[in-house]
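Appendix B, example 12.
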Amino acid sequence: MKTIATLITCHNRKDKTLSCLNALFNSQLPNAYSLDVFLVDDGSSDGTSQAISEEYPEVTIVQGNGNLYWNRGMHKAWQRAIETKDYDYYLWLNDDTYIFNNALIVMLASAESTNNKDIIVAACCSVKTGKLTYSGFNAIGSQLHPTEKLIHAHTFNGNCVLIPKYVYEKIGTIDPLFHHAIGDMDYGLRASKKNIKSLIAPKFLAYCEGHDTLPTWCLHTVPLTKRIRFLYSPLGNNQPYYYFRYALRHFGIIVALRHIISMHLRMLFPRLWEKLKSIH
């Protein structure tokens, strides 16, 4: 029997989290596999933990302090899984991502086809439009659409990702240096340096809605003081300190500095940035 540890983190999205678990537990799983779930509830005040305990008592709930956010929450879930058992696979799953009924079968078959030595990424689409929302990226940062077969990605979004034991043993867990974002992209690039591929599984395998607007710190309609605050908050997407560390690690000091400068210029002069973009 091969074992899968599913890793989820959540905060005050009870209905979405329950829907995510419902899709997971109702999906097909080959007979030769078993699945455990480790969910970090990062300080929810909406009754998430109680609701999960009542509907899915088999889920291991790990309490956070409200300051973990996605990346550190996923690291905490992973640590609990490691302490529990020597798993064959680790499945990252966002709590707003609802996998299709055949998702696990396709992802596990994809992993087996590469001798469980590569990362398998599920591409997500919008339930409203059917359009691509999350997947992997090529070397120039363009998002990749799934095809009928496995395709190589330079790195990836962490919405639904299968990490075989071999990969974990080579790379380790997601890096807790990062607070909310960036850790998934970092993991894909760390894998590449170890000659481990990130592969997008065939076809769409999950629903997840994308973000319709730019980050708050990019919006000229938001006062400057709020733009500054949002840029430096854990939810700022490219929080400068963490993004600098990420860029320095993978692209060098010149690229890291260029990104930090352009990020702050965009935050300070969003209208000018929009005009420059429209010209190009």
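DSSP finds ten helices and 13 strands in the chain. Residues 69-84 form the longest helix (16 residues).
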